[in-house]
Amino acid sequence: MWAIVVKEFRELRRDRRMVALMVLVPLLLLVVFGYAARFDVHSVPAKVVGPQAPQAAAQLPPLFHVKSVDPSADRAQAVSDLRTGDYAAILVTGEPGARPELLVDGASLFNAQAITKATAQLNLPVQVTVLFNPTLATSAVMVPGIIGILLVFVGTLATSLGVVRERQSGTLEQLAVMPFRPRDVFVGKVAPYFVVAALDTVIVVAVGVGLFNVPFHGSVAVFVLGALLFLFVTLSIGVLISSVSENQGQAIQLTMMTLLPQILLSGFIFPVASMAAGVRWIAYILPLKYFVDISRGVMLRGAPISALWVPLLMLAVLGTAAFTLSIVRFRRDLAPNIADAPAPAELVAGAER
């Protein structure tokens, strides 16, 4: 028995990736998520509009971080500004003596809950109106994020396992001697998973809208554009993971290591603004954050494409970076096989014999 124990320890020592997964990754996740797992909201971005905007802005409690004051704007402009997602609340003031109206973004669930709770406790003389998710239903906020998680899981895990299977079965060497460029191999491998993930998106959106009564106020074209860009990122990451994995077990490990941070740090569960500054920057390099912004913005707020150009641009940048790295890794994997493979003339001669 002791010999078996020693053997397993030696095998474990050789597998440095497994050691890192068992020791370093849990410690890292504990530190990062310990600072990120916060439901409490201490500050919300706000705007004050209307004739009495300067005076009202000075009287708001510290919870409201007033980013803009516009005395010339009216309620219609305030609703349009709230639709962009830049503000969690907008205070609309009227003539002296009129009761102000506080418009709250219900698509930002934790911010909205903090605002409604604070106004009730402080007995603020305002009329609170929750827009985009009036009942503050959890399902309306969670379903758009779940769509992104499913796309990450299907796109990244399925793609990485499919490409690694090529290496384990030996068909990667066969691809190397064929007249394919690495880009051709990449597109050919991800195309089926792209179609499956796109169908999953349609099904999940239909179930969310039909079964959970999640609203869909925005443009279908804008949502499709965001979903396609997000799929481009996730599939590229899946191929990149497969290029650095020797077997399907390693591919699953790396996929889980990329999936967990995206679930917990993307704003899907915990508000990004409530995270500690030391880990908040991680959220801004995670593609799921930008898809959550797009899906919630389109489905709940009905945000136009002009209000979502930043997350759309970031998905395009992240997708291009992941795609480029995948192509480089593919070229590196295929090159040794091409060098070791027999020349086409030798293959023809062999076939003739």
In short:
This protein has 353 residues and is of the alpha/beta class.
Give a description of the structure:
It is a single chain. The chain has 353 residues and is an alpha/beta fold. The chain has three domains: 2-36, no CATH class; 44-131, no CATH class; 138-345, no CATH class. Helices cover 67% and strands 8% of the residues. The chain has helices spanning 2-14, 16-36, 53-59, 75-83, 109-122, 138-169, 171-176, 182-211, 220-243, 248-265, 277-283, 287-301, 309-340, 344-352; strands at 44-49, 64-70, 89-92, 101-105, 127-131. Strands 2-1-3-4-5 form a five-stranded mixed β-sheet, with helices on both faces. Strand 3 and strand 4 form a beta hairpin. The longest helix has 32 residues, at 138-169. It is elongated and about 80 Å long.
